[in-house]
Fold:
Amino acid sequence: PYVNTKDILDKANKGYYAVPALNINNLEFLQAIIEAGVEENSPVIIETSEGAIKYAGDGDVQRGASLFVSMVRAFADNTDIPVSLHVDHGKSFKILMAAIKAGYSSIMIDASEYPFEKNIEETKKMVEIAHSVGVSVEAELGRLVGIEDNVMVQSHEAALVDPNEAKQFVEETGVDFLAPAIGTSHGAFKFKGEAKLDFNRLKKVKELTGLPLVLHGASSVPEEVKKLAEKYGADFRGAKGVPSDILTESVKYGINKVNTDTDLRMAFIASLREYLANNPGEFDPRKYFKTPKELVKNIIRERLRLLGCSNKA
Ligand SMILES: O=C(COP(=O)(O)O)N(O)CCCCO
Ligand code: NA
Ligand SMILES: [Zn+2]
Structure:
């Protein structure tokens, strides 16, 4: 069934596990996610960035948002696993309102680039609107910066979440789930040296808020995917993600939603490169998209098991 993201995350919070939030831009990634969830009997959270909504609607954001709701509901309404649809890194009021109108389960209002008071103000505004129509809300505190070689340079120290602010932020905004910045960053090049997250801050934010917490920039860049892509011509030198043991540790300390986009993209392109190299005469998309979809599905299945949400549907 199509459910509210808050329902999925409140269960995860109480059950001390996490659920991946998986980004889509097209049909094939959505198919891979649903198949992985069904095969693992797991809830899944589908998320689309503002760019994905513009891409799907060819610039018309209401059309793009409505298309994604229709696509996700076409699967969700016909499967026994809980499925929700979320706007990732929402910054544009126009896009957030289009998503709410289209029937998204939840939205992220990302005002983390602003000073604390303005983040509160922007988030509170969107929470009031979203909650008035049963849509749940995510916000972010602190900014996504990698911890450079374990040295907390002054600028990075300032960017990570201040746990004492988190309690006030949650109380004043009414936000349903929170993304504390603890040292991850988006994309495939997350750490120059050893991967390290600030678990002390994470533990404090959990103690002070008790809310479901979100880890952004959580892709792990699996070695076998990186090698497959590079075997067929990709240049992913220096790519490094969040190691699995650090992901599971973050769940132990209170992460319940794990945003994952890069891993899906890299798995798809690695497998597509391999297929095209081995099938130079093929031009049927049902053929050349099939193997990449399978690899993306299997990467997601592994992540569902790692995060502890298999058999939690
Ligand atoms: O936090 C994340 C996931 O980050 P990543 O998958 O790059 O680790 N997202 O919000 C997904 C979109 C960011 C662009 O990749
Ligand atoms: Na998000
Ligand atoms: Zn993110």
